[in-house]
């Protein structure tokens, strides 16, 4: 695959194309912000991603990465970065705080955590603060590429009319959920999960359907990640001890409804 990409580039450069065609080629290239403090690993990943046709912007600490994202946002080019690859053990600002801050600011860019922390608790915490995927070191480059492609294939959020159930409202224009008029702070995964349950309201949704439609095909079907996110959503939805909207049906799945129905 690497050889084919090199041949393709040589072929493209040899053509007498107008400048507009070449500009379109560049614009279609996905841009990845790689945040990794170990220079050898950072350069190795960047080289391989560039061989695959991606444009890579490198940062060696969390503060530098946040400055890059903020600078592009202020210049009007914030959407040019298509995803972030993020190490957790970073100097200046650690990876978890980078992830938290991006989500707090409403930045829903796909985030792939790439970390030597392999414990289940670390993985769950990374997903809890808003990461979309988690890959542990050491890793296979082929697997990294597959996961990147899976995240970049996900469709962009399109505008839809507001949906509600009881006093829970999904405002698609503002890209937020509100209960009793109070906005809920949700991670990207919680946001996608709640939207999916809301669009399937009053239906029992199985774990398999959630894995297929909210997670991706790389998700571990035996992980307790879904249960963790459901529990977190319940805590955030039950403002002021309001009645629970998410109901569990043992062996069948979950339902978003005003009352638990068989």
Q: Provide a count of the helices.
A: 10
Anisotropy-based shape: elongated
CATH class (first level) name of the largest domain: Alpha Beta
The residue-averaged pLDDT reads: 78
How many domains, in number, for the residues? 2
What's the Cα radius of gyration? Answer: 20 Å
Q: How many angstroms does the end-to-end distance come to?
A: 52 Å
Main beta sheet strand tally, sense and closure: 5 strands, parallel
User: What CATH architecture label of the largest domain applies?
Assistant: 3-Layer(aba) Sandwich
Could you tell me the CATH topology label of the largest domain: Rossmann fold
Kindly report the oligomeric state of this protein: single chain
The total count of strands amounts to: 11
In the predicted model, the low-confidence regions spanning at least 5 consecutive residues are: 1-28, 75-79
- Percentage of residues in strands: 15-25%
The percent range for helix content is: 40-55%
Q: Could you spell the SSE succession in H and E letters?
A: HHEHEHEHEHEHEEEEHHHEE
């Amino acid at each position: 695959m690497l050889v084919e990409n090199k041949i393709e580039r040589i072929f493209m450069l040899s053509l007498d194309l107008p400048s507009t065609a070449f500009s379109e080629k560049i614009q279609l290239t996905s841009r990845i912000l790689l945040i990794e403090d170990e220079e050898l690993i950072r350069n190795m990943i960047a080289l391989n991603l560039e061989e695959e046709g991606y444009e890579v912007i490198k940062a060696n600490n969390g503060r530098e990465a946040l400055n890059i994202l903020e600078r592009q946002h202020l210049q009007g080019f914030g959407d040019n970065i298509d995803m972030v690859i993020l190490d957790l053990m970073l100097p200046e600002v650690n990876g978890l705080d980078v992830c938290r801050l991006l989500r707090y600011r409403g930045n829903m860019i796909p985030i792939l955590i790439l970390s030597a922390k392999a414990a289940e608790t670390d993985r769950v915490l990374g997903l809890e603060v808003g990461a979309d995927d988690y890959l542990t070191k050491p890793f296979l480059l082929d697997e990294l590429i597959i996961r990147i492609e899976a995240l970049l294939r996900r469709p962009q959020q399109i505008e839809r009319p507001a949906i509600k159930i009881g006093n829970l409202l999904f405002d698609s224009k503002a890209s937020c959920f509100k209960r009793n008029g109070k906005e809920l702070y949700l991670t990207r995964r919680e946001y996608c999960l709640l939207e999916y349950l809301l669009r399937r309201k009053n239906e029992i949704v199985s774990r398999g359907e959630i894995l297929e439609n909210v997670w991706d095909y790389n998700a571990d079907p035996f992980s307790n990640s879904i249960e963790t996110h459901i529990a977190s959503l319940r805590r955030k939805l039950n403002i002021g001890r309001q009645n629970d909207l998410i109901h569990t049906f043992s062996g069948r799945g979950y339902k978003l409804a005003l009352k638990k129905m068989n």
